[in-house]
Write a structure and sequence with these properties.
Elements: E1 2-6, E2 13-17, E3 23-25, H1 35-39, H2 42-48, H3 51-55, E4 66-67, E5 76-80, H4 84-89, E6 99-102, E7 108-109, E8 115-117, E9 124-125, E10 128-134, E11 150-157, E12 160-161, H5 162-167, H6 173-176, E13 182-183, E14 188-190, E15 200-205, E16 208-214, H7 222-230, E17 240-242, E18 264-269, E19 273-281
Parallel strand pairs: 5-17, 7-13, 8-19
Antiparallel strand pairs: 1-2, 1-4, 1-14, 2-3, 5-6, 9-12, 10-11, 10-17, 11-14, 15-16, 15-18, 18-19
The structure holds manganese (II) ion.
Length: about 290
């Protein structure tokens, strides 16, 4: 199944891409794709609905905004330097264990929303990544069973302000957490329908390709990451793990390339669709 959310920010409703490719409003059949939905067997309920019932649901108007494909999660856990060539381009050593950091859940945004540069940002960068949405509570999960805890997969752009990340007192959280710095979607592909090791990621800025790599190049694969994270914190249904970006970020260029208002960032993943954002300056509106 492919699930998406649509509507104004904070008031999104659940949608489903039917087998015939039409976008259906399933809000009469399902709760929103949030912690309680996943925790209460919402995916299984949706899957059990007959195709004829889905086909009778209203079509989502093409003018509707597409929201992030999951409601704001309790946690967004990110993995740093999880591709060898990306670690090399940042001048860093290969990690001996997964390098984890958190991105503020308030950074979540829709896959086609503008990305807004904070007023003092000068080094904004892109990072296309495979996102993993957790389906049930996970603590101290063995690697062999880790995929049983996955609801599905999606695309994440882990936008990063390198100046905040590197020049403003250390630690990565500041550079990762601005509003709109975490577009998620366009849709969630349920775990039964995608092999997380067989996704090709790519990203372009102003139609120039900057990133392209297969997720099989990850240093720590998805089962390893879920097991690892669950040893340090409980993963809740709806939580998002962003699994790291491959080489080709702006910071890795010589000289570096950073985003400016007017730039267009476009990316995709095989089986996961495509998303794009326009870069805009902060306007002062709250
Ligand atoms: Mn990242």
């Amino acid at each position: 199944m492919k699930l998406f959310r649509f509507g104004a920010p904070g008031r999104e409703r659940p949608g489903l891409i039917a087998e015939d490719g039409t976008l259906r409003d399933v809000s009469a059949l399902s709760g929103d794709y949030a912690e309680a939905f996943f925790a209460s067997g919402g995916l299984e309920r949706l899957r059990s609905i007959e195709a004829a019932v889905i086909a009778a649901c209203p079509i989502v108007d093409a003018s509707e905004r597409v929201g992030p494909c999951v409601q704001r999660p309790c946690k967004i856990v990110c993995v740093g330097r999880n591709y060898r060539a990306h670690a090399a381009e940042t001048g860093a050593e290969l990690p001996s264990e997964p390098l984890l950091f958190m991105k503020a859940p308030s950074a979540l945004s829709g896959p086609f929303d503008d990305v807004v540069l904070p007023p003092s940002a000068t080094k904004a960068d892109w990072e296309v990544e495979l996102g993993v949405v957790i389906g049930r509570e996970a603590r101290h999960v063995p690697r062999e069973r880790a995929l049983e805890y996955v609801a599905g997969y999606t695309l994440v752009n882990d936008y990063t302000e390198r100046g905040f990340q590197r020049d403003r007192g250390g630690q990565w959280t500041k550079g990762k957490s601005a509003d709109t710095f975490c577009p998620v979607g366009p849709y969630l592909v349920t775990a039964d329908a995608l092999d997380p090791a067989a996704v090709e990621l790519c990203l372009s800025v102003n139609d120039v390709e900057r990133q392209r790599a297969p997720t099989r190049d990850m240093i720590f694969d998805v089962p390893t990451l879920i097991a690892y994270v669950s040893d340090f914190m409980t993963l809740l249904p709806g939580d998002l793990i962003s699994t790291g970006t491959p080489e080709g970020v702006g910071f890795g260029h010589k000289p570096p390339i950073f985003l400016a208002p007017g730039d267009r960032v476009s990316y995709g993943g095989s089986g996961l669709g495509r998303a794009n954002q326009r870069v805009v300056a902060w306007s002062g509106a709250s």
